[in-house]
Each structure stands twice: as C-alpha cells, then as structure tokens.
Model the fold of this input.
Amino acid sequence: MFVGAPLTPNGLNGGKAGFPEYHNVYVEQKNVDAYVKTGSFPEGTVFVKELTRVLTPTLPDGSRTEPSMREQGETAHRLAAYSDAVFAVIVTIMVLELKVPEEPAFSALWPLWPTAISYAVSYLFIAIIWINHHYLVRFVGPPTLGLIWINFIHLFMVALVPFATAWVARTRLASSPVAFYGGLFVCVDVAYNVFEHTVLARAETRHVSEGARRVARRRSLVVLAIFTIAMLVAFVAPRLGFALICAALILHLRPDVRNR
Done:
C-alpha cells in the first residue's frame, strides 16, 4: 500500500541536496490496518522505499530523455572492460620481446640487463596507468562520445610502449631511444590528464572532494614536468634521463583519486 512520497531532500539540506530525488513509501496493508488501530506499526514491519531521480528538463514539454541506470552502467562497464583488455594485450606483447639466452649459464643473463630494466620500468608504468584508470572509471557515469575518444587516444599512446621499450633495450639505453621513450611517457601522461580532468569534472563532490581533485592536478603536473625534463636530459645523458623517468613513476604509485 502506498503511504506517502516525501519531497524533503532540499528542505533538509538548505536547498542544496546532494541527491536530486524523492521517494515513494509502501507498506503492507495489514501493517497499515494495525497502525490505524494501535497507533504504531507492528514489530518487523517492512517499509519499501522507491527512489525517483529529479533531473532538469531538456525538452520543450518539460520532460527529458535519459538512459536507464542499467544502460549507463553497461556502457561504463564496456569502456572499462575494453580498456582492461587493451592493457592485457600490451603487457603480453612486451613479454614476447624477452628472448631466452642460448647458453645454459647465469652469466648469459648479464648482457640482457638493458632488456630487463626497460621491461620492468615499462611494466610498472602500465601497472600504474591501469590502477589509476581502474579507480578513475568508477566515477565515469554514462560516458560521452568525447570521453570515449579521449580514452581511445590514451590507449593508443600506451600501445606504443612495447615498441619504445624494445628500442631502448636493443640499443642499451642509447640517447635517441631513451628520449623517444621519455617523450612517449609525456604523451601518455598528457592523454591521461585530459581523461582524468574530463571524468573529475563530471564527478559529484560527494564522491571526489575538492581537496582530492586539487592533489590530483598538482601531482599530474609535477609528473608531467619530470617526464618532460627526462626527455630533454636524455639527449645528453640518457641514463640520467631514464633514472628521472623511474623517479617520476614513484609519485604515481598511489592512485590520484580513490573512493571516499
């Protein structure tokens, strides 16, 4: 039985409710009858609350078209699932670049140190990207076409990491390959920063505080600056440039934004 529809969120929050909705309340008829007789509901009475969102109209007649919550969730899930699959393929491609030495001795592994180091750094970079991406897509909501294209551009940049890694390894951290490697990190970071900014601009404050947004922006700018410096330094001191890249990754070990 329908017993009421409170329209109180804004009234209880100074006109600034964080949830634009009202709710309908339903109770079984026998419990309502008991309340009428005794003035209280029986113990164990179940109240069913039906939430209804109130959105700004977009059509001339005062209505609006809005995808269902299920459709929104499925679209965001597809975006995350596709991105996860791309990251998995990229890591697999990098593994295929690791060649087994022909000599049956541990000494045969030593000449492979450029491959091992470049692979480890690239793997860490992709892991950091995935972790930050994983936390960020939780705030995506219904993704727009622009956001989907930004994500595609970001994934395209990340997909070039195996190529840059192989070049650095085969040339034993030579100047131009390391500079290209650093430049690619700059491009990946720029694409991710645009993606992050777009997502956070649409996220509600109750999910991501202003302080968290501010920290994310500052950290992103610092990391981007270090990657850019590393790219330029690599032209004259490639190993120092490579070390700067490693140092910048440490700043992103902790995700920029997480659930509150």
Remarks:
- Residues 2-53 form one domain.
